[in-house]
């Protein structure tokens, strides 16, 4: 199904949602709002943000990793981005 030019894909976890966004949009770091429908149990991304507050991330109680696992440590996005760029093969 398409909404406003985007394909709507039902996902089962935040990790799967992030993988779909990365695969389709080619992004490295993205903030998104992920909700689960209480009636169906299906998840949806309702907002994608390509810019977000670094200070808010550091002040958060944790974050989901790419596999959908919760980490209790705050995400330092600039440091993680640099680590990933240094690990890439030329």
Give a short synopsis of this structure.
This protein is 32% helix and 23% strand. The protein has 90 residues and is an alpha+beta fold.
Structural class, from secondary structure content? Answer: alpha+beta
| Overall radius of gyration | 14 Å
Number of strands: 6
Question: What is the helix tally?
Answer: 3
Integer tally of domains? 1
Report how far apart the termini are. 37 Å
Largest sheet: 2 strands, antiparallel
Given as residue ranges, the uncertain stretches (5+ residues, pLDDT < 50) are none
Order of helices and strands: EEHEEHEEH
Structure, explained:
Strands 1-2 form a two-stranded antiparallel ribbon. By secondary structure, it is an alpha+beta fold. The chain has one domain. The chain is built from three helices and six strands; from the N terminus they run E-E-H-E-E-H-E-E-H.
Structure keywords:
23% strand; alpha+beta; 32% helix; 90 residues; two-stranded antiparallel ribbon
Topology, element by element:
Elements lengths: L1 E2 L2 E2 L6 H12 L5 E6 L6 E7 L4 H6 L3 E2 L5 E2 L5 H11 L3
């Amino acid at each position: 199904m398409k909404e406003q030019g985007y394909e709507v894909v039902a996902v089962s976890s935040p990790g799967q949602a992030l993988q779909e966004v990365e695969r389709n949009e080619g992004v490295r770091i993205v903030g998104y709002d992920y909700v689960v429908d209480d009636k169906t149990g299906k998840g949806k991304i309702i907002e994608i943000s390509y810019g977000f507050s670094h200070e808010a991330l550091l002040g958060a109680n944790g974050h989901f990793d790419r596999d959908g696992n919760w980490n209790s440590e705050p995400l330092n996005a600039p440091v993680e981005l640099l680590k990933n760029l240094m690990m890439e093969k030329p």
